[in-house]
Predict the 3D structure of the following.
Amino acid sequence: MRIFRHVTPLNFVVQFLVLFRLFSHGECGAVQLTADNFDTIIANTELVLINFYADWCRFSNMLAPIFDEAADKVTSEFPSSRVILGKVDCDKDTSIGTRFHISKYPTLKAVRNGQLFKKEYRGQRSAEAFANFVREQLVDPMKEFTQLSEVQHNQMDDKKRHVIGYFETRDSPEYANFAKLAAVLKDDCNFHVGFGEVTRAMHPPGQPIVAFRPAKARSNDMDESFTGDLKSYDEFSIWTTDKCVPLVREITFENAEELTEEGLPFLILFYNPDDNNSIKKYNEIINRELLDEKQNINFLTADGVTFAHPLQHLGKSKKDLPLIAIDSFRHMYLFPKFEDINIPGKLKQFLADLHSGKLHREFHYGPDPATDPPLQLEHHAGNENSKDDDLSKKPTQPPESTFKKLAPSKNRYTLLDKDEL
């Protein structure tokens, strides 16, 4: 996502004057970004880490001196033309907060070469952690290969997605777009690049080639080449983002807050770490039958050993893997039998029953009267209210959501939308 407005060459002078005023008068800490200087600094600085805050927010006030300390540390290590830690008072500059869809304070976002990072900074709030984040972002995200054998299937991590670029020289607009996108998507794909003689067997003279290689261990997809215009950043970005950010994503403790904040219910495959076949099958079914649900559901996979607690919440353990469940952020519902995903429409009906409220009703009152056989949902240990099997008389309660607890915490943020999630 490109987030700066048009900048004329004169603005380079403007940036110099802004930074000269800030630093020559002995001012320390993060640079105050306002509507007057924001676009200029963003457009002309390689990396900007931005703290969106409000003076009345106690978490913002706790962060302020730490962020200023980090800014001083970074300024002493890198030139201001390369890195700036900036801050935006969202009460004074409401237009900037609105532009970046700020829904909680403090929110930390990064911009590199004018491109907004897909993910917020959600790590530790310490001066050293911020400095380490900056250092990590400035490491070249691309791995250069000098022999074609280095990018053969058996030489690459088959649980990762890869983008491979074959270029004649570094001095080309196509490579500039490749490098820019690698910085934005480096957390989602591994980027590899080769130049000159080593790549000439892979592309016609003067025509660079970019190929995508899926995570072969977890997908049945084939390699695919980009067929559009590599000189068009937007066109190349849309294609690469679609490949690197798949429909089915892996949830971890590092990205759980981000995924939960998106606000969509989770459909989760819990798998055994040694089992790639169930992941392949799950991906295949999702992409074949549930594409029209991607605006309504987050399709996820989760390591069933790492996320043992949600399994226990469902009355399950590692020996029951693989299994599929929905977390609606209110309750969890278990798909009866993993093998049933091979029955056409079965998983789609499971989601339809979530949307219609049928899953919740059946947990409370037993199967709906229907001509079709009801979806047999399991009742889990700790949720039975009676030995009486007449659920219409003795309602049961489905397990409460476990993943909502990983959402942005009121012990860490001031949430602007109190009804979120």
